[in-house]
Design a protein that fits this description.
The relative contact order is 0.20. The protein is built from 1 helix and 9 strands; from the N terminus they run βββββαββββ. A hairpin with a 2-residue loop joins β6 (68-71) and β7. The strands form 3 sheets. The chain has a 5-stranded antiparallel beta sheet with strand order 4-3-2-1-5. The chain is globular and about 35 Å long. The termini are far apart. With 91 residues, it is mostly beta strands. It has a single domain (10-88), classed as SH3 type barrels (Roll), CATH 2.30.30.
């Protein structure tokens, strides 16, 4: 099977059905990608969880999350935002 990403490529992942995060491809083996988050953490995921663009990933959020905001360069759904601090719960 041919991989749609190569080592070092950037991609986007939907985290907790709430937030879109940029990741970097590190390795592919056993049908799963090893990815690294911007903060240095990493996980293994199937390719169906990865998207080429930020907008493509945002479109896959559940309907209740369609009202999106950009906060600190990250697309978050409005339901993840604490209205008192104007900051999402992941910051």
């Amino acid at each position: 099977m041919k991989n749609k990403y190569k080592t070092g490529d950037k991609a986007y992942i939907v985290e907790s059905n709430c937030r879109v995060r940029e990741v970097q491809m590190l390795n592919y083996s056993g049908g799963m990608f090893l990815i690294r988050f911007e903060n240095g953490g990493g996980i293994r995921v199937n390719d169906h969880r990865l998207y080429y663009t930020n907008e493509e990933a945002a479109l896959t959020l559940p309907r209740k999350h369609l009202r999106l905001i950009e906060h600190r360069g990250i697309i978050c759904s409005i339901s993840c935002v604490n209205i008192y601090t104007e900051c999402c719960r992941f910051c």
